[in-house]
Amino acid sequence: MDAFRITGGKVLSGEVAVSGAKNAALPILAAALLTPEPCHFERVPELTDVGTTLRLLAELGVAVERDGDRVTLAASSVRTVQAPYDLVKTMRASILVLGPLLARFGEARVSLPGGCAIGARPIDLHLQGLAHMGAEVAIEHGYVVARASRLKGCHHYLDFPTVTGTMNLIMAATLADGVTIIENAACEPEVEDLATFLNKCGARITGAGGDRVVVEGVTALKGASHAIIPDRIEAGTLMLAGAITKGDVTVTGACPAHLEALIQKLREAGARVDVDNDRIRTTVPDGLKALTVRTLPHPGFPTDLQAQMMALMTVAKGVSIITETVFESRFTHVAELCRMGADIRLEGQNAIVGGVRELSGAEVMATDLRASAGLVLAGLVAEGETWVRRIYHLDRGYERLERKLGGLGASVARVTAPL
Ligand code: UD1
Questions:
Q1: Could you tell me if residue 399 is left (phi over 0), alpha (psi between -120 and 50 degrees) or otherwise beta?
Q2: Which pLDDT tens digit goes with each residue over 85-134?
Q3: % of residues, the chain, pLDDT over 70
Q4: Are 212 and 181 in contact (CB under 8 A)?
């Protein structure tokens, strides 16, 4: 199982290009199920989660062609509407095939994802929405089984702006009979990117990216080409990597409008952030100061950058308070950061982080993707060597992170290590 061996203390500098967004690519690839015509995608990041999605689509009968970051999918001869447990259990986002399969084929059987490292993460809101659109939904033998000869448009209010839930409902609504209005929809840029792609296919979606999405159902969709938006979480992680080493890092090919909450917080912490079109340069002229950060649905501070921001705060001057409001147990990095000398106390959903002068390298591991990224960032400034184990979590969501960091001057080696 691969690990990263990081030698801390290198000051990062230079330019690094951002890859396509994982959380946009996964739903958009699943959306290709909605049309029998071929769809062409560019800037598809080379990640394990993308590989899992393509395996799942192939399993369903979709023709898959992949050449680097280009993918072509053709769902003209789908042979089953069943997404099996062994694929869904490794990636919760597999639930994204539920809406498209049900809408186009009138039936879907998707394994329930089960628990995960960052909380219970139920899918009840996905199912409530589909039921409101007229689907019969049952749980049978560990599978969600949904049936509807044709879904019907409805006016649906989401109890929480779930990201993949909003995406599933939008995809389902594209082929429904009549108009679907989703209130309290997730406003994440990835939802908007999905709608942009679907509209190219002939869907009629307005309001995506806002909290009220209107979908006028059509009878069929056609194929289209689409380039995935840049990954704001990867961009943010690289900006924070530069900042923690007090370096001078410019991320290129980014979308600064998607990163406003982070940019504002970094400036508050004493970093200088200069934005020039798709380039974001981050420097730290006079040290880092403590912050108050609260994760929220977009446009609030993203939960997917919480662990990396916490790593930064471990070496900032003063006491920071980081509140996680999106997931109930997304603090698996805390105990590991403490093993590296961080001063963090957990009180319910708050982490109280006292800045320390220095972290020290240690052997650490994390049980989720973004927590692993937080540990890598801590390793960049820790004195001595840090081993981050189980980086298969990182590979799910970061494209060759060690090479991107290495290009900026970090010393990060991928090592095949015993368990
Ligand atoms: C997506 C992102 C993930 C990100 C998260 C929050 C993808 C593939 N993943 O995950 O990277 O961390 O948004 O920004 O896009 N909830 C329910 N019932 C539901 C659905 C969600 O109670 O039916 C709760 C969850 O337990 C959680 C909160 O709502 O507490 C947010 O979850 P949600 O927005 O659905 O996250 P995902 O779409 O799974």
A1: beta
A2: 988 888 889 999 999 999 999 999 999 876 555 556 789 999 999 999 99
A3: 98
A4: yes
The residue whose C-alpha atom lies closest to atom 31 belonging to ligand 1 is 162
State residue 300's pLDDT score: 98
Top mutation candidate among 121, 193, 349 for ligand 1, by most atoms within 8 Å of CB: 121
Is 116 marked active-site?
yes
Q: Give the integer Cα–Cα distance in Å for 189 and 41.
A: 17
* Cα(333)–Cα(314) distance, integer angstroms: 12
User: Mutate which of 163, 305, 324 to test ligand 1's pocket (most atoms within 8 Å of Cβ)?
Assistant: 163
pLDDT in tens, 352-378: 999 999 999 999 998 889 999 999 999
Ligand 1 site, residue 401, Cβ cutoff 6 A: no
State how far the Cα of 374 lies from the Cα of 46, in Å rounded to an integer: 21
- Residue closest to 97 by CA, chosen among 138, 68, 55, 66: 55
Strand partners of residue 6: 386, 412
Sheet holding 13-17, edge to edge: 13-17, 248-252, 279-283, 272-276
The CA-based diameter of the chain, rounded to the nearest angstrom, is 63
Cβ atoms of 333 and 358 within 8 Å: the answer is no
Q: Which residue lies with its CA nearest to atom 28 of ligand 1?
A: 326
pLDDT above 70: residue 298: yes
Between the CA of residue 377 and those of 129, 135, 252, 342, what are the distances in Å? 39, 45, 19, 13
CA 122 to CA 138: how far, in whole Å? 15
Short-list 368, 10, 21, 8, CA closest to 226: 21
- Of the candidates 116, 154, 187, 338, the residue annotated as catalytic is 116
Q: Where are the beta strands (DSSP E) in 179-308?
A: 179-183, 204-206, 212-216, 225-227, 248-252, 272-276, 279-283, 292-294
